[in-house]
Design brief:
single chain, 341 residues, alpha/beta, Rossmann fold, 2 domains, seven-stranded parallel beta sheet, globular, binds guanosine-5'-triphosphate, binds magnesium ion
Length: 341
């Protein structure tokens, strides 16, 4: 395993593929691997790309990859599909779409489908990003379908999050789900060649302006949870001005249009984070949330080992029979476990 880590750090692509498989499958030695790699992480600019199905995320990722390659930057792509238990469907489509990138040693593409729980997928995503980061890529593009928890997860692993919308997906406002605007650093209206694109831009603008300036909500980490904090609108002027207002960029990904502007917007966000010490803050928040996540998981695993299996069946039956309420049941279960109650 140490050999593989050494090879990965030296740019060996076979070692990269094998280590990705090890962390994705939550292999027994993955802890060791990630610990060895961790000091070499934190250098890549991780860009999350999320949005409703079919908005053109994969096409956009392909176009961005080509543009970054033209700048001489190396790019790793991670396509995460939380909606499909199979690595067919969407991911197969991605493969075909991204085929034009193959043969370039400065590009590495990897797909990941759901395995087990959503929590398992977000842990595997974080780990895969770290392996790619340690491998020395300048840019890591992570595509995930905006489905429930996954888009929040992507914002927790990315430095810049792109939220992609497109016209023709039914109600423009509903195409961008509630809560997703808060995670967007840059809003992309793709398929700008389609009718209705201006409407999509306009409604996104309205949604953004409703929340700005002063009353814009901010997402902050608190005890491992993401909280939305409404600012009171009387904050000092500098603070309001210093806030990042997500720009809206129109693209036609399939023709490479608007990609230069999109890369500029990403660069501006990167500079904003770097100049304002906001990057340190962002990383702290992400670390805090990850730590709580992992702690919760580790404690739960230990706890479940200490509780005899039949206790659960028994308690579920008693709750269903209305003999005990769920909260009291939790207390009763914990009371049976030494060192916890
Ligand atoms: N007209 C037009 N079509 C586009 C554009 N970008 C992508 N498409 C097409 O839209 C379809 C979906 O594109 P994808 O890139 O697979 O979209 P996606 O968001 O990755 O889709 P999922 O991964 O399934 O959620 C494909 O047929 C693309 O060729 C665009 O800018 N204009
Ligand atoms: Mg896709």
């Amino acid at each position: 395993m140490n050999d593989l880590v050494e090879q990965l750090l030296n740019g060996n692509r076979r070692a990269l593929a094998r280590l990705l498989t090890a962390v994705e499958n939550e292999a027994a030695n993955r802890g060791e691997v990630l610990a060895a790699l961790f000091p070499h992480t934190g250098r890549a600019w991780v860009i999350g790309v999320t949005g409703a199905p079919g908005t053109g995320k994969s096409t956009l990722v392909t176009a961005l990859t080509k543009a970054y390659r033209a700048q001489g930057k190396t790019v790793a792509v991670l396509a995460v599909d939380p909606t499909s238990p199979f690595s067919g469907g969407a991911i197969l489509g991605d493969r075909i779409r991204m085929r034009e990138l193959s043969g370039d040693t400065g590009v590495f593409i990897r797909s990941m489908a759901t395995r087990g729980s959503l929590g398992g997928l977000s842990r595997a995503t974080r780990s895969a990003i770290r392996v790619m980061d340690a491998a020395g890529f300048d840019i890591i593009l992570v595509e995930t379908v905006g489905a429930g928890q996954s888009e929040v997860d992507i914002a927790l692993a990315a430095k810049t999050t792109l939220v992609v919308d497109a016209p023709g997906l039914g109600d423009d406002v509903q195409a961008i789900k509630a809560g997703i605007l808060e995670i967007a650093d840059v809003l992309v209206v793709n398929k700008a060649d389609r009718p209705g694109a201006k409407n999509t831009v306009r409604s996104l603008k309205t949604m953004l302006e409703l929340g700005h300036p002063g009353s814009r909500s901010q997402v902050v980490a608190h005890h491992g949870q993401l909280l939305r904090v409404e600012s009171n609108g009387v904050g000092n002027k500098d603070e309001v001005e210093a806030m990042w207002l997500p720009p809206i960029v129109e693209t036609v990904a399939s023709e490479g249009k608007g990609i230069g502007e999109l890369i500029e917007a990403i660069d501006r966000h990167r500079h904003y984070l770097a100049n304002d010490a906001a990057l340190i803050n962002l990383e702290r928040q992400q670390i805090e949330i990850e730590l709580y996540d992992r702690l919760r998981e580790a404690l739960m695993t230990r706890l479940l080992q200490k509780i005899p299996g039949n206790v659960f069946a028994d308690v579920i039956g008693r709750i269903q029979a209305r003999e005990i309420d769920p909260e009291s049941a939790v207390m009763a279960v914990l009371a049976k476990v030494p060192d916890v109650s």
